[in-house]
Specification:
Distance between the termini: 30 Å
Strand content: 5-15%
Structural class: alpha+beta
Helix content: 25-40%
Radius of gyration: 16 Å
Order of helices and strands: HEHEEHH
Length: about 100
Amino acid sequence: MRGLGRKEFSDQEREYMFKAYGSKPDKQPFLSPHADVAKILHFNGKYKPWKRGRPVGQSTTAVSRCGPNGQDCAELWWEYADDLMDSVLANPEDDTDIPLEG
């Protein structure tokens, strides 16, 4: 699912939603209704989850929302991140401790 990590819908997206579904969403927050079931989450907006850090508890600062319940997209992404990913994201230049398979 692409388009995540954005703060708001573009005017073109809002017009498309109106033509396709009969209603125009508010500009904010950005909502991706099917991202909660996507196999890949692509954060091409400036609000990337790894730049915010792993959330603790319920998020009150969600920029973009996913799925019919409006879950924080970053929170959804972090559900699949493990300790190794945390280490790599914290030290992107240091690749000495990354185990290679094969």
